[in-house]
Amino acid sequence: KSYLALYFALLACHGAYQAGVSGIKTPVLYLDWELNRDTVGGRLKALQIGHPELAHVLPYYRRCEAPLHQEAHKIAADVAERKIKLVILDSAAMACGGDLSSPDAAIGLQRALRKIACASLLLAHVAKNVQEGQQATAYGSVFFRELARNVWELTKASDTNPVQVLLTQHKDNFSPRHEPLGFALHFEREAVRVSACNIDDQPDFEA
Asked: Considering Cα of 31, then 61, then 149, then 168, what sign does the dihedral take?
């Protein structure tokens, strides 16, 4: 999920259209609770080698330790100064802190995002033990879904190379739901390349 999020960040920084996704050109801030600057930088470099047309742009990066609400004012000031219009959070669980099953976790996260005051893309882990026929949701309180305006589920077909993933939209408060999007992530020696893939060709996506 982080490779795809970083690819989307590069598309937005450039204002490019690729693999069925269009980015509105804007500075982007990547808020990272999961990895570190070197790891994220290495993944960005690999994506740029795979997509040399995106090699001249980079999102801003901030390594985070404390929950978002404790640093929201500092981040909001940075967002305003750099004219950032998109922040990416990796991940929502770490950004919350506390008990994820409590409504306060999701509500507090949304309040912090309102202080930052720009578009946001939140990466969230899916709850385990989802019963057959039920929709997978973000781990924790139902408010993670209810307070979101746009919800997509990322499904991976297999660990083969290229890795094929499916994005399925489950919620959109502003327009009809988008058709599912398929991507293939090609991992090469030093490069990672993202392309669109035909989801009808992948048996794992049939359901």
From this structure: negative
Q: What is the DSSP letter of 39?
A: H
Question: Measured between alpha carbons, how far is 104 from 170 in angstroms, rounded to an integer?
Answer: 23
Residue 17: other Cβ atoms inside 10 A: 10
Strand, coil or helix: 57: coil
Pick from 185, 190, 188, 155: which is nearest to 169 by CA?
Answer: 155
Q: Is the pTM of this model over 0.90?
A: yes
132: pLDDT confidence band, cut at 50, 70 and 90? low
Tell me, what DSSP letter sits at residue 101? T
Q: Percentages helix, strand, coil for the chain, rounded to the nearest 5? A: 35, 25, 40
Residue with tokens 């309102």: 114
Q: Map tokens 């026929």 to a residue.
A: 133
Q: What is the pLDDT of residues 45-63, one digit of tens each?
A: 999 999 999 999 999 999 9
- What's the CA gap between 187 and 43, in Å, rounded? 11
Interatomic CA distance for residues 3 and 192, integer angstroms: 9
| Token couple for 8 | 């989307």
List the structure tokens of 77: 């000031």
